[in-house]
Amino acid sequence: MAKNKTEQLVVDFIHAAYGERMDVDTMVGLISDDFAWQLHVPLSPVIVGRDAARAELEKHSQLSTGMIEGSEIRTIVSNDDTVVVERLDINAMNGVEVSFNVVAIFQVRDGKITHWREYWDASHVARQLGIDPSVMFDPLNA
User: Fold this and answer.
1) Distance in angstroms (rounded) separating the CA atoms of residues 74 and 87
2) Are 50 and 27 in contact (CB under 8 A)?
3) d(CA 111, CA 21)
4) Which residue has the higher pLDDT, 66 or 117?
5) How far apart, in whole angstroms, are the C-alpha atoms of residue 107 and residue 25?
6) Which of 111, 93, 95, 101 is closest to 33 using CA atoms?
7) pLDDT at residue 122, rounded to an integer
8) Domains with residue ranges and CATH for the chain
9) Can you give the chain as a three-state secondary structure string?
10) CA–CA distance, 84 with 77 (Å, rounded to integer)
11) What is the mean pLDDT of the segment spanning 28-39?
12) Are the CB atoms for 38 and 114 separated by under 8 Å?
């Protein structure tokens, strides 16, 4: 699927998020020291730094599964340092399976991911979970 090293790096990163539990060690090994991640643009805060990203990924791994069966990369396009990925993500949170479409933008420098931003419909996910969209990110802030 990947047509170059930059895309392959991102595909490896995404594949590390598959399964009942994300492979946080592999994911963190593919990011830069100055990594910046925004789980949901514009609603979630920007997580900066490898250590902060590890802590946040571990928190996510406790709150939900990784991407489970049915998840897929639908489209991937790139230039030298940017990879855009369209995905269908399926996760289970509190025993409830949710599916949603995601567009993620990754920036890469010197063989490491430096930025990761995701765009998806939080209200769609909240409805599947039976919760108010205004509290969607509260568990991450606990």
Assistant:
1) 5
2) no
3) 25
4) 117
5) 20
6) 111
7) 86
8) 5-140 (3.10.450.50)
9) CCCCHHHHHHHHHHHCCECCCCCHHHHHHCEEEEEEEECCCCCCCEEECHHHHHHHHHHHHHHCCCECCCCEEEEEEECCCEEEEEEEEEEEECCEEEEEEEEEEEEEECCEEEEEEEECCHHHHHHHHCCCHHHCCHHHHC
10) 5
11) 97
12) no
Do the bridges between strand 46-48 and strand 31-38 make them parallel or antiparallel, or are there none, so unpaired? antiparallel
CA separation (Å) from 33 to 76, 109, 126?
25, 11, 32
Single pTM value for the model: 0.90
Mean pLDDT, the chain, whole residue set: 91
Residue that is written with structure tokens 């643009």 in the block:
41
Is 92:62 a contact under the CB 8 Å cutoff? Answer: no
d(CA 92, CA 18): 12
In whole angstroms, what is the distance from residue 77 CA to residue 23 CA?
A: 24
Collect all residues with Cβ–Cβ distance below 8 Å to 80 and sequence separation of at least 6.
6
The amino acid present at 104, given as its one-letter code, is: A
* pLDDT tens per residue, range 54-109: 999 999 888 888 889 999 999 999 998 999 999 999 999 888 899 999 999 999 99
What the block records as the tokens of 108 is 């890469």
